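Q: Hi! First time asking for a complex rather than a single chain. Here are the components, and I think there are four in total. Is that enough to go on?
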Amino acid sequence: MPHHEDVNKKSPVRLLVVDDEPHIADLVATVARYEGWNAVTAGTGEEALRQAAGFSPDIVVLDLMLPDVDGFTVLDGLRASGAMVPVVFLTAKDATADRIAGLTRGGDDYLVKPFSVEELMARLRAVLRRSNGPAWKRSVLEVGDLTMDEDTREVKRAGVPVSLTPTEFELLRYLMRRSPAVLTKAQILDHVWEYDFGGRSNVVELVVSHLRRKIDDGHEPLIHTVRGVGYVVRRATG
Amino acid sequence: MPHHEDVNKKSPVRLLVVDDEPHIADLVATVARYEGWNAVTAGTGEEALRQAAGFSPDIVVLDLMLPDVDGFTVLDGLRASGAMVPVVFLTAKDATADRIAGLTRGGDDYLVKPFSVEELMARLRAVLRRSNGPAWKRSVLEVGDLTMDEDTREVKRAGVPVSLTPTEFELLRYLMRRSPAVLTKAQILDHVWEYDFGGRSNVVELVVSHLRRKIDDGHEPLIHTVRGVGYVVRRATG
DNA sequence: CGGTTCCATGACGACCCTGTCACTGACCCG
DNA sequence: CGGGTCAGTGACAGGGTCGTCATGGAACCG
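A: Yes, that's all I need. Here is the structure of the assembled complex.
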C-alpha cells in the first residue's frame, strides 16, 4: 500500500480545484482523491466561491486565468470570508511577471502550466504542512539507507549526500513515496513529466540509469527493474 | 525546519494589523500567521479600537493614513486603555516630516510604504524583543561560521566583518532565517523586495553574485544554487 | 550641486540539463 | 539454442538557466 501520511488524521484533506479546463481540474482532483483526499472542482469563479462556501476547503488550487472573473477576484472572495485558506496558483507559462509577483508571500505557492502532477502534489503537501502551525516537521522519505528531505531537497545514500537534477529528484521522490510498490513506465511518465509531454522514447530508462549510477553504485541496489512492468525502489525482499 | 524562535513560547504572539487597504492588511496577517503568530486585521480606526479591546494584541501594525480617523487618534485610543502595546507604523512615501517625527520614541518603529515583508517582520521581531524588558538579548543568526547580528547589522565570516548593502543584507537574512530550506527566486523576490516591485530580470542572481564574492570568497561555499529551483544557505552536508 | 554608492536592466557567454538516436547487452520463449 | 523483445548506456544536439559585465539612473551625502 502506498505511503499515505494522512491516513491517520481524523478527517481527510479537503481540496477545491478551480480551473476552467475540465481536463485539468479532473486530473488534479483524481490524483488527490487517490491520495485519500476529499476533492471538488469548479470551472468558473462564481462556482468556486459557491463551492468554497459550502465545502470549506483546507486548501485551494486556483487557476489565475478564468473565463468569467479574474483569479484575483476569486482570491479576494475566498479571503473575505475570513478563513485564511492556503492557495496554490496555476499560471500560464507566458504569464507576465507582474501577474505572478507576490504569489508566494504568506504560505502560498504557485506553479506554471503545464506542470507535473507529482510536483503539484508535493507543493500542496508542503503548503499544508506549513499552514498547520509553525512547528511543522520536515518530510523525510526513507527507504533502506536512502533518505530524501523534501524541503531541503537533500538526498543521502548511507549518509553521503548525492546531488540530483530536478528530473532525477522528481522521479526518485515518486518511487520512494510509493515504495515498495512497482510503478509502470506509463505511471512514471504521467506523474513525473508535465501532463502534455508527448515523448514516448526511453526517457524513463535514461533517468533511471542516471539515478542508479548516483545512488546504487557501490551499494546494495535499491532501484530494481521489474521486467515487462516497470521499476520499484525497495530493499531486496527478505 | 526554518528558524522559528517563537515555537517554545507558551502562547503565540498576538498581532493586530490596521490598514485600510485589505491587500496590505491580509498580506501582513498572512506572513505573520506563517511565522506562527496570531493575527487579526482592521480596516478602520473604529474597528481597530474594537479589535484591540477584545483581542489585546502584543504588538500593532498601524497605518497612519486611515479613512475615518487619524492614525494618531487610534494610537491615543490604544494607549488610553493603559497597556503599553508597542506599535510599528506604516506611512506613505511622501509623508511630511512632522508626521513621522517622534514615531520611534518609546520602543516603537515605522516603515514607509511600499515595504518588503521580511523587513517588516524583522522590525516587528525587534520591537517585540525590546518590549520584553530592557535585558533583551540580541538576535544572532548563525550558519556555519557565518554570523549575522540583526540589531547591529554586523555580518561576519569566520570572525571577519563583512560589509553589506541593504539589499544584500536583507536577502542574506532571509536565506539564513530559512536555512537549510531551499528558496525559489519567486519567494525571494516576494519577501525581500518591496511588495509592488514588478522586476522580472536577474536581480536575484545579481545580488547573490555580490553576496558570494563578499562571503564565500576563499572559504567553503555556504551559498549554493539549486539549479531549476533556487538558492540555499547551508554548510555542505556531512 | 557635485561625487559616490547602490540598484535595475540588458546583453552575452558558459554550462548544465534533457530528450532523441543508436547500439549493445540481457532476458524470455519457442 | 537462437531469435526477438526489452532494458541499459553512451553520444550528441538543442534549449534553457545561471553568472558576470557594462551601462544608466536613482538615491544619498557631503
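A: The mean pLDDT of chain A is 90. Let me know if you'd like any chain examined more closely.
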